[in-house]
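Known limitations

Files may contain more than one protein. Parsers should not assume a single record per file. Below, a two-record file is shown to illustrate correct handling: read the sequence, read the token line, then continue until end of file.
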Amino acid sequence: MKAVALGELLMRLSPEGHKRILQADRLEMTFGGGEANVAVALACLGEEAAYVGKLPLNMAGEAAFSFLRRYGVDTRHVVRGEGRMGIYFAEHGASQRADRILYDRAGSCFALSRPEEYDWEGIFAGAAWLHVTGITPALGEGARQVALRAIAEARARGVTVSFDPNFRANLWTEDEARPVFAEMAKGTDVLIASSDGLSLFGIPPAGTDEAACRLAAEEMQKKYGIRTVALTMRRCVSASRNGWRAMLFDGAAHYSKEYDLCIVDRIGGGDAFAAGLIYALGKGMPAQDAVEFAAAAGALKHSEEGDQLLASREEILSVVRDGSGRIAR
């Protein structure tokens, strides 16, 4: 199955370990971004995964290209142009100190891109799936039109569309996001969100309550005609310790088992869940198996440094069977 993920790839700069930026005398550089994270995870699972976005014609853009190609992501339809690369700084929290993110992405090459720059015919040739998030339209009018055009092009070709709202208060306001999210939801087949992430659709946080999650999913399905709703359910004990499970609603509610997470890097957990779900549904797994696979993928990502889940199908299935973390010999 060919899956397309459209969004901004960012340069990530982080202090070593759990240092604060004000303590650091060096920063580790890697790359990340919700949609690119999904593409990398799918490529590691053996799927044909294409990343679509715009990267600058400079050393940073070349490094980003090399990063994607390292994991087998299809970059043929990435647009190149003048401008800067978006950056974000990430501090890893611990115990009662939360993770912190600082964006430096205003006016980036991707944020200023336009729909007519992209080869939509080539992008969707042979594609079965498009994944987008609510981060892209938050970047500005150009990126907003790119996201909406991608959904329209996918729908016109019968391509399944998954949408993760991923609201970022650091990028835009709730009033700005609400009508855009509603428009994107109308073109969505599979909604992927956190159980507390549907407030902009008028749905209160559901937390880890099974009944509340089911009601939230039913409301989204009825309101927007969405075929499948998947919600991650996070129980926060501290920045280092979380409970993690998920629900898939397709007319019936299917719940995964819960994982007790000792977190190495929380960033990208939801993207790993999305990739696991896209993979599972694309393979025709039954709903219960699909949500178990996706939840295990998300749980496993929390054990890896960096934005992306770099795991095989067999490794994820081993977590489904036995999530104890016992050594494999």
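...continuing to the second record:
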Amino acid sequence: MPDIAIRGLVKRFGTVVAVKDLDLEITTGEFVTLLGPSGCGKTTTLRCLAGLEEPDTGEIFFGDRCVFSSTRGVIVPPGKRGIGLVFQSYALWPHMTVFQNVAFGLSKKGLSRAEIRARVQEMLALLGLNGYEGRYPSELSGGQQQRVALARMVVTQPEILLFDEPLSNLDAKLRMTLRAELKRLHGEIGATTVYVTHDQLEALTLSTRIAVMKDGVVQQMGTPQEVYHFPGNLFVAEFMGNPTTNLFPAVVASAGPPARVALKWNPDVPLLLPDSKPLPEGAEVVVNVRPEDMGFSVEPRAGYLPATVYATLPTGAECITYGRLTPGGEEVVLKGPSEEYACLSPNQPFWLGLKRGNVFDAREGTLVTSFGFSPRKGGA
């Protein structure tokens, strides 16, 4: 399977620049997700890879084969790029059976009937569709239709798989099931895969690497652990995670090491950063702590910050707790096991500990340092 190289890609729609000077390297066999809010340029990037949109400038390579170059005048049409593409809509032929839909691409390749039947049956078995060969799309559930669309794409053995939010039309439980199918399928065939979604959970569970995009620019590219635990800037920190992360304005009280950071709403309880590099004294920073990385106590505790419970939201195995910091009243959110958080109730005072997180430059929004993580780049 080939790797993918995107160099200096620009795509405009009138005065709107959808993709801005994009450089991206995807290695052979990777599962890379383009993640971001609506309008960030992720689908446009995918359509440029597929040949459905012609970029204004830049180059795209599949392995050593150039499929687009604005300087060389190369534009390889979609049908000759060796790709498989699955959209949100299943786009199945309604008058064809499951077998006929999956076999359609193979029949255009001039394979024998016996070979087509063997390839189709193998693919249907891989995706749990045995016994559905004679059914029409109208006789299938949404999840079954999406499996047929996947089978139709993969059976032709494309070198590169492209997905544009293929699970967004399905309910939450079915999406989880098909995520497992997609991950297993990628493991089976090992194709270089590019996947577009705005669903963070999809990106975190499926990807070998994630490219977080905003306004046509990749803000950060890394493994799911890196993007989640070590966001490269404040946009990535805020975008990743549900519920949203906690962001606390602060000032560097002393450079260290260990550096001391004074939280603006409560400078009397400084945050110590023993593993931090020296920070410029007096610098304005933002401390980012995810809800699951907040500790709490129902009794006053050294180094912990006072707050009051605002609301508790049990979700089954976990409980999300919203609080108000004192003084100041800023909102803070915690997440943890329901049995541990069951002791908290509205209007109850409690104390917060910042166990691990990140510190960002308040002006530039860039990552300055992280604290509380061990090993340094390993996540939990």
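Parsers that stop after the first record will miss the second one. For reference, the second record is described as follows. Residues 38 and 304 are 38 Å apart (CA to CA).
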